[in-house]
Amino acid sequence: MAKPDEETPLAWWSDFLACPRCEVIDGHPLSIDVAEKSAVCSDCGLKCELTDKNFVGDRGNLDVKSVQEHLISSWEKNKNREVFKESSRFEEFRKSIRNLITSDAAGSRQRIYELLNSLVGDLKGERLPLKVLIVGSHELGCGVSVIRSKFDKSQIQVVGFDLIESEFTDLTADAHAIPFLDDIFDVVICQAVLEHVINPEMVVSEIFRVLAPGGFVYSEVPFLQQVHASCFDFSRFTLMGHLLLFKNFHIVRYGRNKGHLYVLAWWVKYAFGQEKFPRLFGNICAIPFFIFAKFIDPIFPQNPFFSASGTYVLAAKDTPQSVKERLTWISNKD
């Protein structure tokens, strides 16, 4: 795990820690007293070393520790299988192919950047820096390092967590028991995470709890996509299912995150990259399909309610629309 340094200060987010083990009292978790290099819950005695940044608890009555151990074991096995990863030349080739077959301009990073940039511009120092939480920051994605590279620390403070550590995580924690106090964050980013949690509704309620009034959450989930991440892929969501998952939020914007041409590309990737075939073979077979999808998919007419590879939702902690109103959104698309 990355060591505390000037780029990832512990000070600002350690002031808002909450116990991930204790049951909430009147809807609020117990705060953790921070002293020197450790944080201690005065009620249950849970002690978290800030240098280890491990804040995994079991508030949701889920066997999180065993899941965490299984995840770490699986991750280590996968790392060992990636025999080409040590080759810098192969890594550069892989990055080149990824840039060729993906399009940030119409994708996740652009939507997240536009959201954060508009908030920074609108506030103009009044409430800056924005406090941003990344749920599931284990991989690069649209997470901690990407945001830090685009915004100054005077504009945005960002902290990311996941159940297992990596160079992109500031702390390890369980999304079913987010170890922060209520109403702290201005923005929560939850990209391609909810399909990997045991209880998505509980995670969304935790996001609601830690989000400040008027704050925003950006969520992405898969719809017509193959199983990934081995046995830790639990759910798929239609766009309406995604919208209703955030029923306590005010929906600001929603849509598809790539359409059915990407569905075909993903099918080829996994059809020839699993079971008897090596993963690399599936990736190579899928390259022409991803390139085709990159240029044709944006102009191909399709309905996000019925044909999306994945969907996104941007919502605010504000007065929610009724379920009845949300159902009219899909009926008007038929």
Element layout with pairings:
Blueprint lengths: L10 H4 L18 E3 L2 E3 L6 E3 L4 E2 L8 H18 L6 H14 L6 H16 L6 E6 L8 H7 L5 E7 L8 E3 L11 E7 L8 H11 E12 L16 H7 L4 E7 L3 H12 L7 H18 L7 H4 L2 E7 L6 H9 L3
Parallel strand pairs: 4-7, 5-6, 5-8, 6-7, 8-9
Antiparallel strand pairs: 1-2, 2-3, 9-11, 10-11
**Poorly predicted ranges:** 1-9, 79-87
Sheet with most strands: strand arrangement? 4-7-6-5-8-9-11-10
Order of helices and strands: HEEEEHHHEHEEEHEHEHHHEH
Q: Per DSSP, what share of the residues sits in E-state strands of 2 or more residues? A: 15-25%
Query: Based on helices, strands and strand pairing, what is the structural class?
Result: alpha/beta
User: Gyration radius, to the nearest Å?
Assistant: 20 Å
Rounded average pLDDT? 76
Output the keywords.
334 residues; alpha/beta; three-stranded antiparallel beta sheet; 11 helices; 11 strands; globular
